[in-house]
Design goal:
- The structure is a homodimer.
- Chain A is α/β, with parallel strands linked by helices.
- Chain A folds into two domains: 237 residues, Alkaline Phosphatase, subunit A, CATH 3.40.720.10; 146 residues, no CATH class.
- Chain A is built from 15 helices and 17 strands.
- Chain A has an eight-stranded mixed β-sheet, sandwiched between helices. In chain A, strands 4, 5, 6, 7, 8 and 11 form a six-stranded antiparallel β-sheet that branches.
- In chain A, strand 12, helix 10 and strand 13 form a beta-alpha-beta unit.
- In chain A, helix 5 packs across helix 10, helix 11 runs parallel beside helix 13 and helix 12 runs antiparallel to helix 13.
- Chain A is globular and about 65 Å long.
- At the A-B interface, strand 3, helix 3 and helix 14 of A face strand 16, helix 15 and strand 17 of B.
């Protein structure tokens, strides 16, 4: 059998006026899946640990984030198609606005994307002390930065043991990168990063685009704030780990980056934005189509998390209902549960009341070649009463490989 | 939000005539908590592992007892206010009675406390081969022993790899401490301990107090039985680990010792004895008051375990009913579940039929910002049907920090 894993980012929740958004939403298709499947709850990493979207997905794909996660930067880089080499350092960056005194007045340059591609190009290809700067724009005000030793000089490992330049708040100056240990690598890395931040300000300040932005009354994108520093993760490929080929459908650069890093093919879908208005029907079509070619297909939907971070109960409920109608309806209609084990879950909760990720366990249903149970509604509390019990995210892929009869025997 | 963790020592049980003491006891307040909370069962350490009260609590506070637990002695020492230094060795001791042939005739000197403080003083401050003896009475017939290298001579680490003098049974002589490995530290430690046991007998035998005890028809406290040998545990402070300050209310020296060792403030309550007649209402008051100042308060009640070790079903049932009335009633009346997550559980089972600790999982309820479930009675079997599922003790603090919105994100 094949496997289809659908993750609705941040879909799990706590109670608002005694109910969760999943409990209030009208979700006949999700409930159908619960009725014909086995249900449970899942701690993405372990009980009580609040996962990032990155560490949660690493865990859901069966890897131990405590061992392979070095920081978000490498996945941001992979998300825009940059392939890291051993020794590379990767960071995610914001275009930001500084005032004349070097104080950050907007960490996202007014969220105005005008000319950002061109500004990014002006920083790409710089050389700093025998290191190459690779700089590529991602979505919105974001970009990925890779620092790589010049090939002529041979390998030199940069270090992630540094304080990052991004102070994470406005109203202050850019932080000075500093080594967190006494290694020459860490000191060297901090020096290069400081020099990059300085050179970027010099180049962006004088750039034609920023003059146009100012003339048009927009905030200039006159500085870069790097954060999420990490080195190339040492991670076994998905294909090697499970012996099958997989594909992914996601609108979010970070998730694409994780998928590329483990070797899942990334299928691009038009207007898959990662927002609540994303073309999720198109993503469902793409995932269903990919099942013809691949043994494992991963479908990621971000809009549920977006509404949650905004604390918008009705927005989340509506997004869940869109997923039910435009994704789950299609999947129930077109995917044969005799040939595909279908999983629906979330990567973490993002409760409306908290507006950020929490560790509340995720509802999960697996339909296909499973021992069905008595649960008939897909939500946090009904799933908790299902026969799957409380499982860990890191075990999910093994469970799926087992159900699909693609698991290897341990022992004899 | 804040957190209040109430642990009734040894409260969990197995079936006696088809019911557990919790199932038979009248506990309207515990049941109320179950009704408004989320319920489950918890393995303090891991399924099937019988926890001591020390290792169970270490685990409940989120530490791995397999890594930090070196023996009970250090916590007994901390429980009477002794602060260990690196290299120190700590043991817990009984005052015992030897006959004229050196045979132990009572491991607890008849449980008669007459003059024990004075006897303890006579051993405190001895010097044995450049090591200082610190000896302090604890509750009842118990005392704590610390062996410390003389400061003038600089550090020397003693070893816990020895056979202890306490044979744990009467009718035999005191065992000879022996090294369990070939290190000089272990051999040295055994020698010092043997010399201490010998010197203690010499001093106690001739002591005025023991003459008075014999004249009054009491058993003399003429020997010391050291056991629970351990070195200073290397343990991260609670405040550093969770980023909050915590306080504890307990009548039991060992538990106070664990709390002091991890840096929880220890609040003393008058007549909090750790027995079934303890002033548990006063302890509840102290815990409720401490919630004003601290983000985390731990309330420990020992009487449930005491009745269990005696195999006294009705005594245990009565103690549970006292806890329900005098502790849980107060807490439900005075603690706002909108601002405090309240947990009620036990650290291990002590079944009436077994009379010692077992690994049966503990019933647990968490009330506050939780997804409530359908459980309406607080006991082993009803809780097992709750939505919390089966969790591990070591995850409890992380779960509480997450529910209280005080957890850090792992990843981004």
């Amino acid at each position: 059998m094949k496997s289809l894993l659908i993750v609705c980012d941040g879909m799990g929740d706590r109670l608002t006026d005694g109910k969760t958004p999943l409990e209030v939403a009208y979700t006949p298709n999700m409930d159908k899946l619960a009725s014909v499947g086995i249900n449970g709850i899942m701690d993405s990493i372990r009980a009580g640990i609040r996962p990032g979207s990155d560490t949660a997905h690493i865990s859901l794909f069966g890897y131990d984030p405590y061992k392979v996660y070095t920081g978000r930067g490498p996945f941001a880089a992979a998300g825009v198609g940059l392939e890291l080499k051993k020794g590379d350092l990767a960071l995610r960056c914001n275009f930001a606005t500084l005032d004349e005194n070097g104080i950050i007045i907007d960490r996202r340059a007014g969220r105005d994307e005008y000319g950002l591609d061109e500004l990014a190009s002006s920083l790409d290809g710089l050389e700093i002390e025998n290191f190459d700067i690779i700089f590529k724009r991602s979505g919105g005000h974001r970009a990925a930065l890779v620092i790589r030793r010049s090939e002529l000089l041979g390998p030199y490992e940069l270090s992630s043991r540094i304080i990052e330049p991004d102070p994470h708040i406005a109203g202050v100056g850019i932080a000075k990168a500093e080594a967190l240990d006494a290694s020459p690598q860490s000191r060297y890395t901090a020096d290069i990063l400081n020099e990059f931040v300085k050179r970027a300000i010099e180049i962006l300040r004088e750039h034609r685009i920023n003059k146009e932005r100012i003339e048009a009354g927009k905030l200039p994108a006159n500085a870069i704030l790097p954060r999420g520093v990490g080195t190339k993760p040492e991670i076994e490929s998905f294909e090697h780990k499970y012996g099958i080929r997989g594909a992914s459908v996601s609108g979010m650069a970070l998730i694409k980056g994780i998928c590329r890093t483990i070797g899942l093919d990334v299928i691009e879908v038009e207007n898959a934005t990662g927002h609540v208005d994303s073309n999720i029907g198109g993503k469902a079509d793409a995932a269903i189509k990919a099942l013809e070619e691949y043994d494992f297909v991963f479908l990621h939907i971000k809009g549920t998390d977006e509404a949650s971070h905004d604390g918008n109960f009705d927005g989340k409920k509506n997004m869940i209902e869109r997923v039910d109608r435009e994704v789950m309806g299609k999947i129930l209609g077109e995917v044969d549960l005799g040939g595909v084990n279908v999983v629906l879950t979330s990567d973490h909760a993002t409760p409306i009341s908290i507006k950020q990720h929490t560790a509340d366990p995720n509802p999960i249903v697996i339909a296909g070649d499973v021992r069905t149970d008595l649960v008939t509604k897909f939500n946090e509390r009904d799933c908790a009463r299902g026969d799957l019990g409380r499982i860990r995210g890191r075990d999910l892929m093994n469970i799926l490989m087992d159900l699909s009869d693609k698991a290897k025997l341990f022992g004899a």
